[in-house]
Amino acid sequence: MALTSRRGHASRLARGAASTGTDLVAVLGGDGTLNEAANGLAGTDCVLAALPGGSTNVFARTIGLDDDPLEATRQTIAAISANSIESVGLGEVAGRYFLFHCGNGFDAAVVKQVERRPAVKRYASHPLFLWAGVDTWLRHYDRSEPRMRVEHPLGTVDDSYLTVVLNTDPYTYLGSRPLSLAPAATLSSGLSVVALRTMEFQKMLALLKDLFEGNPLENNDDLHVVNDLSELSVMGFKPFPYQLDGDYLGEIEQLDFSWCPQILRLVIPAVV
After folding, report:
1. CATH assignment of the domain containing 225
2. Residue 118 near residue 126 (C-beta atoms within 8 A)
3. Biggest alpha carbon–alpha carbon distance for the chain
4. Is residue 117 located within the same domain as residue 14?
5. Which of 37, 72, 112, 248 could serve as 27's disulfide partner, Cβ 3.0–4.6 Å?
6. Same domain assignment for residues 65 and 190
7. Do residues 142 and 227 both lie within one domain?
8. Binning pLDDT at 50, 70 and 90, where does residue 5 land?
9. Residue 97 CA neighbour count, 13 Å, CB half
């Protein structure tokens, strides 16, 4: 057993385990720790077993694990016994893989505000995200003009304020409720992209209403949704903030995405 002590530590531990011939690495942690471990194991024969140990546990819950660590451990042991292991695809951007999504623009600005309050995040993450979303919309994000351009083989968007590139769905959870942006995004299909082309108050409320009610998002004048992409690019009109699997990574001028099929061996809970 090993404990992580700093950012990037989980990647080094996982990479070291894979290099010594370890068959499986079980990771108890939040989405950021799982992301690092996946980056250490991607492209190797070593298997990743994800166990929920964070405040939201998006990826662990996405693959069907219970949010309780003990129950998730029982599920994982049963899956390993049944050899329920699959080679799954990951998104890749800026030299790093991501498990479930990369948020660009407003989404990342919200994560930045959340990460400024780690103690609150640990014990009240969902109320904190809601508060940070409102506070960022009011005070911490320039809504006066679009922030980025999105290009992919099926089209172009010149006026995105918020762009999320997804490897899985849902986008996140609020309590027990999944917030789904792109149901077509799975570990065995290409990337999905959702680009928001307006931040008008009434239209934002309508979008949030659809998310909470589970209504599917569709292409329209305000929203660009495309699935099963092998590559795409996001180019800022000036540097824009971005986050990867819930970790804020700063500002950047351009991101080039690709989908890497069957790059990670993963324990998948058996369907009961």
Report:
1. 2.60.200.40
2. no
3. 55
4. no
5. 37
6. no
7. yes
8. low
9. 23
Say whether both 208 and 171 belong to one domain: yes
Q: What is the pLDDT of residue 105?
A: 94
Domain match, 81 and 203 both: no
- As for how many domains the chain has, the answer is 2
Both 16 and 142 in a single domain? no
Give residue 208's domain range. 100-258
- Beta carbons of 252 and 240 less than 8 angstroms apart: yes
pLDDT at residue number 272: 46
* 141 residue type, one letter: Y
Q: Is residue 140 part of a domain?
A: yes
Q: Which residues of 132-143 are buried (b: 16+ CB within 10 A; e: fewer)?
A: bbeebbeeebee
Q: How many degrees, rounded to 5, is the angle at CA 163 between CA 141 and CA 248? A: 60
Q: How far apart are CA 115 and CA 142, in angstroms?
A: 19
Looking at 77, 97, 117, which one is the last position of a domain? Answer: 97
Strands 223-229, 191-196: pairing is: antiparallel
Question: For the segment 165-222, what is each residue's pLDDT rounded down to a tens digit?
Answer: 999 999 998 888 899 999 999 999 999 999 999 988 888 888 888 888 888 888 888 9
In the block, which residue shows the tokens 């995004």? 185
Picking from 97, 114, 135, the residue at the C-terminal end of a domain is 97
